[in-house]
Write a structure and sequence with these properties.
The chain is built from 8 helices and 6 strands, in the order E-H-E-H-E-H-E-H-E-H-E-H-H-H. By secondary structure, the protein is an alpha/beta fold. The radius of gyration is 17 Å and the shape is globular. The two termini are 20 Å apart. The structure holds adenosine-5'-triphosphate and magnesium ion. Magnesium ion (MG) binds next to helix 1.
């Protein structure tokens, strides 16, 4: 059975596709058989994969499968059971696809900018997913907010403190590592394969890899925490 990471946040442009591609590239780098399930009709992950292939940079170790709706998503997850890891990229609106992806996930990753608009949307989403899980008679999946497009200038700023305090008060778990705003991520997602197919002679690429590696190690540990909590129950 693959480990399933659902990357979700109904707020458009929060970084779901970017995070999905980074996660998949890192899992592949760690030697896991990895596929992205692109469950967003917009098809941005698919576009990354296809344009990388067209450029002769077929993403190393990352397959891509499209799922047009929640039924196709459920079928894809069942069919892809030979993979070690599935990363589900979801649409920029709340609906059945997001609900199904979250219910099936070992870890729901919610990328969010460091701003109260974004944080309140994330909290609303988690509360909705908790309700849907309860209705389905299932426990709420493990989940983590991942600050995205983070800048070192954000450190010790009031918006960061306020958002962290708000999420803490709402008992929403937040990753200790943030994903930084980096041009390298934009370049990669424009169709340049994974971070490991970009030249490590470039300092920004090395920094991006380091940042991605830190984030993914933390998310992997969080997904395994969930598995051991289940086994202990
Ligand atoms: N960490 C980052 N560093 C630099 N640019 C980023 C980062 N994260 C996201 N972006 C940029 O922000 C924009 C939106 O990102 P992305 O497409 O990943 O969001 P999304 O949540 O998948 O959007 P949608 O809701 O439309 O599917 C893109 O131009 C992307 O390149
Ligand atoms: Mg997207």
């Amino acid at each position: 059975m693959p480990s399933i990471f659902a990357v979700t946040n109904p707020k458009g442009g929060s970084g779901k596709t970017t995070v999905a591609i980074i996660l998949a590239g890192e899992f592949a780098k760690h030697g896991y058989a990895t596929a992205i399930v692109d469950a967003d009709p917009q098809g941005s992950s698919y576009q990354w994969h296809a344009s990388s292939v067209a450029r002769g940079l077929s993403p190393d170790g990352v397959d891509l499968v499209r799922a047009a709706d929640e039924k196709a998503l459920a079928q894809a997850i069942d069919r892809l059971d030979a993979y070690d890891v599935l990363v589900v990229d979801t649409p920029g609106y709340y609906g059945e696809v997001v609900i199904q992806a979250a219910l099936r996930a070992d870890l729901v990753v919610l990328p969010s900018k460091v701003h109260t608009f974004d944080a309140s949307q994330v909290v609303r989403t988690i509360r909705n997913l908790e309700r849907h899980s309860a209705t389905a008679g299932l426990p709420m999946s493990q989940h983590r907010v991942l600050f995205n497009e983070y800048d070192s200038l954000d450190r010790n700023t009031r918006p960061l403190r306020e958002v962290v305090a708000y999420l803490d008060a709402e008992r929403v778990p937040v990753c200790a590592n943030a994903l930084y705003r980096r041009v390298t991520y934009r370049t990669m997602t424009s169709g340049h394969g994974t971070l490991y197919q970009m030249s490590d002679k470039d300092e920004p690429v090395r920094k991006a890899r380091y940042n991605a590696d830190q984030v993914v190690r933390e998310l992997l540990a969080a997904s395994q925490d969930g598995a051991s909590a289940e086994a202990a129950a």
